[in-house]
């Protein structure tokens, strides 16, 4: 049986998921995975984010594109949980990506390093 509820697309999915995560943070940890992660604390959330990152890397290395998409969804979900724990919204990340759009990666990285914001991504 398929769910006939309309689903958001694109960036709307991130915002909708962020709303669900925010609602579930306060739920009963016995009833909600998000609430259970929050009850266990930031270290547990970061551990899960690391695990999902490793699983994403393995799927990519194994050239399993279906697994890659599935693991990337898990990674993004856990990243959103961490963002929520730190009081941020996916729109903050999208705004930052928008700010960087059109800049060369080399120039953008140099600008971050001179402003004191450092990241190791390329």
From TrEMBL:
Pathway: Amino-acid biosynthesis; L-histidine biosynthesis; L-histidine from 5-phospho-alpha-D-ribose 1-diphosphate: step 2/9. Keywords: Amino-acid biosynthesis, ATP-binding, Cytoplasm, Histidine biosynthesis, Hydrolase, Nucleotide-binding. InterPro entries: HisE (IPR008179), PRib-ATP_PPHydrolase-like (IPR021130). It catalyses: 1-(5-phospho-beta-D-ribosyl)-ATP + H2O = 1-(5-phospho-beta-D-ribosyl)-5'-AMP + diphosphate + H(+). It is found in: Cytoplasm. It is an enzyme of class 3 (hydrolase). GO terms for biological process: L-histidine biosynthetic process. One of its GO terms (molecular function) is phosphoribosyl-ATP diphosphatase activity. Its main location: cytoplasm. The keyword Amino-acid biosynthesis applies. Its EC number is 3.6.1.31. One of its GO terms (cellular component) is cytoplasm. Belongs to the PRA-PH family. PANTHER family: HISTIDINE BIOSYNTHESIS BIFUNCTIONAL PROTEIN, HISTIDINE BIOSYNTHESIS BIFUNCTIONAL PROTEIN HISIE. This is Phosphoribosyl-ATP pyrophosphatase. The lineage of its organism: Bacteria, Pseudomonadati, Pseudomonadota, Gammaproteobacteria, Chromatiales.
């Amino acid at each position: 049986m398929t769910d006939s509820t309309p689903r958001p697309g694109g960036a709307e999915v991130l915002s909708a998921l962020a709303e669900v995560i925010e609602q579930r943070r306060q739920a009963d940890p016995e009833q909600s995975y998000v609430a259970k992660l929050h009850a266990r604390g930031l270290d547990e959330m970061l551990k899960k984010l690391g695990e999902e990152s490793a699983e994403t890397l393995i799927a990519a290395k194994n050239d399993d594109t279906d697994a890659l998409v599935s693991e990337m969804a898990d990674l993004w979900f856990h990243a959103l949980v961490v963002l929520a724990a730190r009081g941020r919204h996916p729109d903050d990340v999208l705004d930052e990506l928008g700010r960087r759009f059109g800049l060369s990666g080399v120039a953008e990285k140099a600008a971050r390093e001179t402003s004191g914001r450092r990241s190791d991504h390329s």
